[in-house]
Every structure is written in C-alpha cells, then in structure tokens.
C-alpha cells in the first residue's frame, strides 16, 4: 500500500530527504506546479528511473491524485519509498499555497484539445441534423484525428493550440521559487 501525504504535511516537511515528482504532462506542469517539483510524466516514468534520486522518498504529484497513485503502482516493484500527495496540485492550490507557472493559461494543452475536439464533434452532429447530413464527416474527421493521435502520439490539434498566444511560455527570471508570476504574464 502506498502512503499519502497531505498538502499541509508536504508544505511543512519537505527536505533533502524528499524528491517531488510531478507526473502530469509537460503542458499541465507548465500551467502550474508546486515549487521544487520535477516533471517526469507518468508515461515516461519507467524509462526515466535514473532521473529519480535513489536515496530519498519520492513524493508523486498530479492534478488530483489518481495518476500519482497509478505511477506509484508502477514504482512499487522497484522497492522505492513512495508517497502520493493527497488531492494533488488542486488541493495545494485550494490550500492557498504558491505555484510556479510558465504559461499564461490555466488549462493544460490536453484539456484544451479535449474541449475543442468535443465541440467539433457536437457541431458536426448538430449541423448534420439541421443543415446537411454531410456535416457528419466533421465528427468523423475529429474521431480519425484522435485515433491518429492515440496511435502515433502526435496530436496535430495540440501542436496548433500549443502555438496560440495564450499558451506562450513566460520568459521571466524568477528569483525565488515562491515568487509570484511576472505581471502581465499570468
């Protein structure tokens, strides 16, 4: 059984004996992460075991705790000392603790893709009923795009959204990990 740690315990007890690992995607991590956390996405964890310090407890973090628990299960056979942040980054933010942001958006790129894909599927369906049945091909096209993204791990919609102005990287130099984001770059 994997142990959990609360946000208040994490806030007061982190030391050199802990390594904070954020297992979310790079875009989710950039949209807001706990200061000092290192990004090792869940799908890369097994290939990046050498990036994890062997002599410390790993505290796994995700948005709500689910992916961190799944990652802990992947690390369990390795005999690592692992804890999961209960409630994840969401609980950290709700507690009023600072986060580090390197993008303007608060939505991860994956969430943006899911929203746009869902809206396109709904639009294709509605337009096929109201305007012309050929609009159903829009929904089919989105489905094919999502299938392609799942098979190849290349998401063209994600690439396009990643270049949008609201997803630009912040170029601020942060003097202290608890510092607030730069004015105008939120």
Could you outline the blueprint of secondary structure elements for this entry?
Blueprint: E1 3-5, H1 7-13, E2 18-22, H2 26-31, E3 38-39, E4 57-61, H3 66-75, E5 82-85, H4 88-94, H5 109-130, H6 136-152, H7 156-162
Parallel strand pairs: 1-5, 2-3, 2-4, 4-5
Helix pairs in contact: 5-6, 5-7
How would you portray this structure in words?
- This protein has 186 residues and is α/β, with parallel strands linked by helices.
- It folds into two domains: 3-94, Rhodanese-like domain (Oxidized Rhodanese, domain 1); 109-167.
- It contains seven helices and five strands.
- The chain has helices at 7-13, 26-31, 66-75, 88-94, 109-130, 136-152, 156-162, and strands at residues 3-5, 18-22, 38-39, 57-61, 82-85.
- The protein has a five-stranded parallel β-sheet with strand order 1-5-4-2-3.
- It is elongated and about 60 Å long.
- Mean pLDDT is 84; it is low at 173-186.
- Structural category is alpha/beta
The total tally of domains equals: 2
Uncertain parts:
173-186
Strand order across the largest sheet: 1-5-4-2-3
Proportion in β-strands: 5-15%
CATH superfamily of the largest domain: Rhodanese-like domain
Write out key terms for the chains shown.
single chain; 186 residues; disordered C terminus; alpha/beta; 5 strands; 7 helices; Oxidized Rhodanese, domain 1; 2 domains; 5-stranded parallel beta sheet; 41% helix
Structure summary:
This protein is an alpha/beta fold. The chain has seven helices and five strands.
């Amino acid at each position: 059984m994997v142990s959990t740690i609360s946000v208040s315990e994490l806030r007061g007890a982190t030391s050199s004996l802990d390594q904070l690992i954020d297992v979310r995607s790079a875009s989710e991590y950039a949209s807001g992460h706990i200061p000092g956390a290192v990004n090792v996405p869940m799908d890369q964890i097994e290939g990046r075991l050498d990036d994890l310090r062997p002599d410390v407890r790993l505290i796994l973090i995700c948005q709500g705790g689910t992916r961190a628990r799944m990652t802990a299960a992947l690390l369990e056979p390795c005999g690592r000392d692992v804890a999961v942040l209960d409630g994840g980054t969401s609980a950290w933010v709700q507690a009023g603790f600072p986060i580090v942001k390197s993008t303007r958006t608060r939505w991860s790129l994956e969430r943006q893709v899911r929203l746009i894909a869902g809206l396109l599927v709904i639009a294709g369906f509605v337009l096929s009923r109201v305007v012309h049945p050929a609009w159903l091909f829009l929904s089919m096209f989105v489905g094919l795009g999502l299938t392609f993204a799942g098979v190849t791990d290349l998401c063209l919609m994600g690439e396009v959204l990643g270049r949008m102005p609201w997803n630009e990287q912040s170029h601020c130099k942060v003097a202290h990990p608890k510092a607030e984001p730069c004015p105008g770059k939120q």
